Amino acid sequence: MPDYSQIKAMLAITKASLRATFRSPSAVIFSIAFPLIFILVFGFLSSGGNINVNVAITQGSDTANPIYTAIKSIPGFKFATGDSIKIQGELAKGHITTMIHIRATGNLNLPYTIDLISSEAANPQNIQLVKSILNSVISKINEQRFKDAPSIAVVNNNVKKVPGRIYRTIDFILPGQLGFSLLSAGVFGVAFLFFNLRQQLVLKRFYATPIRRLYIILGEALSRVIFQLITAIIIIGIGHFAFKFTLVHGWVTFASIMGLSFIALLLFMGFGFIVSGVAKTESTIPPFANLITLPQFLLSGTFFSIDNFPTWLQPFCNILPLTHFNNAMRNIAFEGNSLMDSWTDISILLIWIVIVYALAYKIFKWE
Is 51 left (phi over 0), alpha (psi -120 to 50) or beta? Predict the structure, then answer.
């Protein structure tokens, strides 16, 4: 009698489970349709970047004047720090909206001129916003201290532009929606799947076959991984070809994104195993799953930058695994980082994998 092939049995389970997944309307809707709807909405609304007022003061600026003091106290400005090379790099990437240069003119009627340096990666609306704020500051100083002079300063309308990659709304939104899809499928999909397999005694029937428990899980998990990676390809493809989602190095960047998605999906499926183990009835799965997913959807930079949150909340945001997936995804896609360049974010995902699967091993139930 030939030896029983564990691999063939696992692949047979994978094939059957994958076929069942494609036939499930809910799987297709939640994994593909919903993220695509968000991408289509944000893609059609705007082709610009997200509003972001990160600025920097040039090293050669005149700082011994009331304009500098007033600018530094503007709550809406977040001032970047670091050497000039780092600032220039952040400016070219669009992480800094503009650099502000204050220079003395020697003219008593117009003592100072403010020059702005920006890049093609910055949103023009944000540059205009900075101009408006600076003009407001100048008007306020004029009213309080320089009533006899025409103006203490003027903002130069000619903004110097340094080369930079155009940053579109889709470059921020799509990584968040891909993370949304992977997290939803990993938690809800796996939780419902293994809960129903246990309740319908399918897992128990598997015991009558020679296949081992590990290969049962691997077969089902492999089908989920294949399905979700296909959805990732669809989401990235539509974002890239329809809305010019940036893939800096083309296929190399795409391959890095798929590798990152695989790591994230493994982690998110671990959460699903935990939920399927703690849920007593099918109706309790959504509440448990939402406890894991909703905080990450809202606080992980899925729809807007976590810099918009209060300072006290940001450390919690930076603990969440979806935050690190979103950060790594955006750095790989737009900045051209490799997986090794994003090792800090990936290592945190790997730590989460160890913690989650250790917990899932203790909680997961076969019967």
Answer: beta
User: Model-level pTM?
Assistant: 0.72
Is the distance from CB of 65 to CB of 102 less than 8 angstroms?
yes
Assigned domain for 1 exists:
no
Instruction: State residue 242 phi and psi, 5-degree precision.
Output: -90, -35
Q: Is residue 194 in a domain?
A: yes
Other beta carbons within 10 Å of 313? 12
Whose CA is closest to 211, among 2, 34, 4, 1?
A: 4
* Count of Cβ atoms closer than 10 Å to residue 272 Cβ: 28
What average pLDDT score do residues 301-310 get? Answer: 78
Question: DSSP 3-state assignment of 338?
Answer: coil
* Geometric angle at alpha carbon 212, from 207 and 213, rounded to 5°: 75
In this predicted structure, what is the pLDDT of residue 48?
44
Four-point Cα dihedral 360, 362, 364, 366, nearest 10:
150
What's the Cα-to-Cα distance from 322 to each of 22, 132, 312, rounded to whole Å? 25, 35, 19
Same-domain status, 303 and 202: yes
Closest CA to 113 of 72, 58, 161, 162: 58
Q: Verify that 83 and 198 share a domain, yes or no.
A: no
Q: What is the pLDDT of residues 218-267, one digit of tens each?
A: 887 888 889 999 999 999 999 999 988 989 889 999 999 999 999 999 99
Q: Please tell me whether residues 25 and 127 are part of one structural domain.
A: no
Residues 219, 270: one domain?
A: yes
Q: How many residues does the chain have?
A: 367
- pLDDT value at residue 42: 55
State the Cα angle at 156 between 154 and 160, rounded to 5°. 155
Residues 53-64: pLDDT tens digits?
Answer: 789 999 889 888
Side-chain half-sphere CA neighbours of 363 within 13 A? 20
Residue 201 and residue 329 share a domain: yes
Domain assignment of residue 151, given as a range:
54-162
Q: Domains in the chain: how many in total? A: 2
pLDDT in tens, 138-156: 888 888 766 666 788 889 8
98 and 204, same structural domain?
A: no
Shared-domain flag, residues 355 and 256: yes
The span from the CA of 144 to the CA of 66, in Å, is 11
